[in-house]
Amino acid sequence: MSDSPAPFASLLAARDLAVVWHPCTQMHDHETLPMLAIERAEGAWLYATDGRRYLDAVSSWWTNVFGHRHPRIVAGLKDQLDRLDHIMLAGMTHEPAVALAEKLVRRAPTGLTRVFYADNGSSAIEVALKMSFHYWRNQGRPERNRFIALRGGYHGETLGALSVTDVPLYRVTYAPLLFEPILAPSPDAYLRATGSTPQQHAASCLADMRRLLEESAARVCAVVLEPLVQCAGGMRMHHPDYISGLRRLCDKFEVHLIADEIAVGFGRTGTLFACEQAAVSPDFLCLSKGLTGGTLPLSAVLTTEAVHAAFYAEYSTGRAFLHSHSYTGNALACRAALETLAIFDSEPVLERNRVLADRLCARLRALERHPHVADIRQTGMIAAIELVRDRESRDPFPADERRGLRVYLHGLSRGVILRPLGNVVYFMPPYCVTAEEIDLMVDVAIEGIERAVA
Questions:
Q1: pLDDT confidence band for 316 (50 / 70 / 90)
Q2: Positive or negative CA dihedral for 357, 69, 271, 238?
Q3: Model confidence over 395-413: pLDDT tens digits?
């Protein structure tokens, strides 16, 4: 079978290429690379206009946690559309926004009592960065205007979010527009010294963080990280001890902790929120993607009563948080999020996920001794395979060889959506995936890897 399905199999794909500019895409590639024209979706599957179907092994950029068109979310949206579609959230309110905030506060780590809505993950990071900075300004500490981020971390592509991102692919071009973060060594367990455990590597990186804070805490607003998994940075995973130790350091040096759970929240790591595995409450919790079950754009930033109090004053004092989005707290999106949380409440989602994660882990053992696989890592319903030129030396494949692209093309030829991050092949399937579908996506990935490294 060819590694590439027939490109532009539908009129829709051809029309698309004439007018649509796609994200994270070199449009020239689509002169030869298949553009999938999807007409409907159901559960874990996407259905194309040419009659083919594709297993969505990446949950459409990690959003559709319960798969596509979940009946409960669809029914809630239809009901909400008959009541209220959208109003501005300045000077007005509505039941879905209030009910969702109440429910998020009840489910979130202790101490997070206030909810600020935005539209997407990058915007949530922007909100948290600005809110932390503004908090210190309102406290009479304007010299606190720096942020600490992890090397290799990713937090989005708007200018503020990109400023605390350390992935050259996204950052280099726009560097003149960005502020410079203070970068801390990554607790990524793949980087640990020979003979060291992930826990020991986390402890070493915490010692580095302590030194950074000793030198610069007086100028720092907050530390930002993705708990447990640095997703777009290559699915890099770290021990929970790093998060709990970082919380203690932030407390000691009076620095905010921003937890970016945009990708890792809502059950993806095995608990509803990744922070729970370290028994940590951040000062800011950023949520999006799975928040609405992947149906509509919405994000939320949860923060503490102390942060909220720093902005509470007569409007004329200028202490108000002046940040807004036209679609803040959209009623339809909030309703979708309420139905998403209701599914977690009414079904044993996390228990089912543990069984599925065990199945995924067992199937990936087939690659443990592969000469071109340096690492297989997994946290809950996230798993990743590190492709390298040589297993023993971990010598990477050159980026321009695009080995991951070959895996992607093979996946398309076999009806599975695998979208590697460079030479990291990963799985982040929806929670409705079956054991048989896990077998399919792993089998196809293994086939694709064999072809890619041949």
A1: low
A2: positive
A3: 999 988 889 999 999 999 9
Other residues' Cβ atoms within 10 Å of the Cβ of residue 119: 19
Dihedral angle computed from the Cα positions of residues 211, 181, 152 and 114, in that order, rounded to the nearest 10 degrees:
90
Number of domains in the chain: 2
How crowded is residue 33: how many other Cβ atoms within 10 Å of its Cβ? 17
Structure tokens at 160: 């503020």
264 contacts 232 by C-beta, under 8 angstroms: no
Q: What is the pLDDT of residue 34?
A: 83
Residues above pLDDT 90, as percent of the chain: 92
Name the DSSP letter for residue 416: E
Query: What is the predicted pLDDT for the residue at 400?
Result: 84
**φ/ψ of residue 122, rounded to 5:** -60, -40
| Residue 310 belongs to a domain | yes
> How high is the pLDDT of residue 6?
46
Same domain? 315 vs 281 = yes
For residue 339 the two structure tokens come to 């139905």
User: 3-state class of 280 per DSSP?
Assistant: coil
| Domain-located, residue 376 | no
- 261, amino acid identity: E
- How many Å apart are CA 1 and CA 47, to the nearest integer? 20
- Residue 377 in any domain: the answer is no
What range does the domain containing 408 cover?
A: 11-69+349-370+395-453
pTM over 0.85: yes
pLDDT above 80: residue 198: yes
CB 360 within 8 A of CB 424: no
Dist. CA 387–CA 453, nearest whole Å: 9
CB contact set of 35 (below 8 Å; sequence gap of 6+): 7, 8, 13, 16, 17
Looking at residue 10, what is its pLDDT? 74
* Together in a domain, 239 and 312: yes
